[in-house]
Each structure stands twice: as structure tokens, then as C-alpha cells.
Amino acid sequence: MKRIFLLLVALVISVAAFAKIEPADVCTSGMVLQQNTKVLLWGTADGGTKVKVQPSWSKQSYDVHADSEGRWEVYVDTPAASYTPYKIEFSSGKDKVVVDDILIGEVWVASGQSNMEMPVKGFHNNPVENSIDYIAGAAAPDKIRMFMVPLKRSYTPETRVEATWKGATPETVPDMSATAYFFARKLNEVLDVPVGIVCPAYGGTRVEAWLPREVLETYPEEDLSKEAIEKRHHANRPMLMYNAMIYPVKGYTIKGFVWYQGCSNVYAPEKYVSRLSDMVGTWRKDWRDAENALPFYQVEIAPFNYNNGTDKASLLRKSQHDAAKAIPNCGVIVTNDLVKPYEYDNIHPCMKREVGDRLAFLALNRDYGYKTIDCYSPEALGCEKVEGRDNQLAVILDNAPRGLDRWHDIKGLEVAGEDGVFYPVTTAHFDCGRKTLWVVSPSVPKPVQARYCWGDFNPGNLHTIAGLPVSPFWVKLN
Predict the structure, then answer these.
(1) What is the mean pLDDT of the chain?
(2) Alpha-carbon distances of 414 from 2, 74, 453, rounded to whole Å
């Protein structure tokens, strides 16, 4: 009996000595860590045990104790970005885990619905333009790495996620988010540092899918009973993607967010600004952004024939621009020129490289100091009469300091008189000094309102001379 007791004691001591330590799934080999900051690392171990963290780029080690539930977390100082692979050793008792092939660079979260989820290889019958070239010419595994969070839903917050960091090769690029990949590729080309992307994206989701229960409970019309949620299409279910796809990676130290979503909220554009504001505020808290300042850059929903006979798609785009103004450190890129004529019933337009590039232009200008890289599309501030020319209307535009790219053959630009019937503009001239676009249509002798790219599918072709498209607008004389 005494011998059995001693064996049990030895077994307990042995288990304690080999207390299992496990870094979080996103804190594993191949990861990219944000440069020149304190990055959050976390994981599990036996409750109360001490965990030692030793990065190879520093002689400094970090000690932390797992809490009663076995969770531990620690902030680790990172050096400047480089292509040098590092490792981190996590140890507890005699147990040791080595996470290797770590790069230091720039890290972003890329999220949203199907246009962010859409891989470089495309969806069925939905191609990404020139995908073969981009797959064959993959940027290299030390330049771009992506952590693609798998599609999943959960009624309760989850801490685990079945994903790994993968570098950009011809074998891995086909399954990477196209928009996120092109965003990362442009950043890498300009900054020449590794770029890491954490990508939780799920096709068809509303903003409400990416919010936690405590926020959704403040929305009276959202029935959060399991029975009500189950009746919805899987992509439209509130909170489930937040629990399964955001919660496991929240807090991973990043530079900012890029967001491509909106189509599933098109039928309630009046709520979009407040709901997106709630989501951004929640995520920034999740990422421990006490100043509510992490960059958040949106993609305007592209032209698409919703067949609803209303202006809701245009109003949703307007809400996206309003959100960019209402949310601190937020921006939006314009996409009304990034569709082919035959894509009127394809909600996944093929020109994804341009989308990723324009997101990168925002980040490069605003966050990395490249002020010579234009990033803002012109926006209409109103309109006024042209003195002595009753047949012309002057639309006041900002963000076009060097003018626009055409005077004729402008698609998507229309004017109307008092009768409210719109006709295409045949000639338009931009006055850089007055910051006004003078528009003319022979069918409208006295125009009182003008609009551009207004409607579900009404693509445009008017740009700044830098190539950035004019934002959709509808303005009227006071």
C-alpha cells in the first residue's frame, strides 16, 4: 500500500514537472509579429505554473504565471522589421515549446464578407483577374504570410482556431484572400518588410455577425434566442462569427484593420453607421486599443444589380462614407470603376488587385508617412449655379488638387432639371482653382441637381489624374 502511495506521489510530481504549455494557435511557428512595439503573446498551461518566454532576438526573458484556469499572457518587446527568422522558447517546468520561423514586420487584420474571403484562385464562375500570373509570381514566404481563419460559427466565444501561418508560395497563394494578399503585396513592395495578415472573413455576413452578444442585446429588433437565430441563413446569424472567428485571435498585436463588407446590410443602410461604429469600437477594445485609434479602412461595395428598385445600395455606399467620417481614424476606398459591364449580376467583381492596392495607398499615406502616394477620392460637397450659364451646374469637389482625367465620354454622371428626370452629362470641365466640376447636358437646359454612379449598378470612369475614382454623389441646389 505504501508503495502504491509513493508511486502516485511520484506520478503527480512527474506531471507537475512536465506541465503542458501551449501557445495560442495564432502565436505559433511562421507568425509575423508587429515591429518596434510590445506584442501580446498568450496561451495555456497548468493553472498557477510559471511560464518563461525567451525570444531569440533578445537576451531578456519574460516570466508570467498561468491563472487558475490555465491562461497566461505576456507582452514582449520586438525589434525593427527584417527578413531574419527568429524563434521564441516557451518553458514551464521541464516542458518546453519552441516556436520558430518568426518574422518581424507589419501585421494587419483583414475581415468582412465574401469579397474579402474570395481567394486568389477565385470562386466557382467568379474569377480573380490575372490570377494565374499572381499565383505563379507569388511574393515569397518571407515577404507575405497569412493566417486564414476557417469559416466557423459558435454560440459561445471560442479560444481555439484550426489554422496555421502560411507564407506566399505558388502552392499557398491560391487559397489566400485576394484582397488581403494584394494589400499585403503592395505594402511589402513599398516598405520592403515582411507583412502578416490575420484573415477572418465569412461570405454573406452582416455587421451583426461580427458583434458580441452584449452589444447585440442593445438592438431591440435582434432576437438572440437560439431558435430565432437558427431560422436565419447561416451567414446572417448574429454574433456567431465574432465568437468563432474574432474571439480566438483578438488581441494579437497589429497595425490596423481592413474591412470589405456591406452587401448584406444593403437593405438597412440607415443603421449601418451606428452598427459599424459599434463594431469598430468593440474590436479596438478587444485589441486593447485604449485610444480608439487603430486604423480601420473600408472598401466601398461595388456596383451590383440588387433588383430591388430602390436606392438602398447607393444609400449604403453613402453610409460607408459617413462612417469613415464618424469613426476616428477611419477611411474608405471607392470601387465604382472596378467592375466589368458584364458583371452587373456578379457580386464578386474580378478586379481585386486594384482593391488591395487602394487599401494599401490609404495605409501608406496615413500610417507610414508616404504623403506623395495619393489615397483620397474626390467627394462632392454640394453644387452651385454657374453665373451667366443657365445650362451648366457646378459641382464642388474636394481631393482633386490637380484635376480630373477626362472631359468627355464620362459614364455614370447625370443632371436633372426641376422635373427630376436625369439625363447623361455630355461634357464636364473641372476648374482646379474653384474646385468645381462644370457639367452640361443638351437635354437639360436648366440643371438643378447632379448625381454620379447613383444606383445599384451604375459604374463610372471619372478619376483624378492620379487614377483614383470620384466618389458617388447626389447633390442639389439649395
Answers:
(1) 94
(2) 94, 57, 9
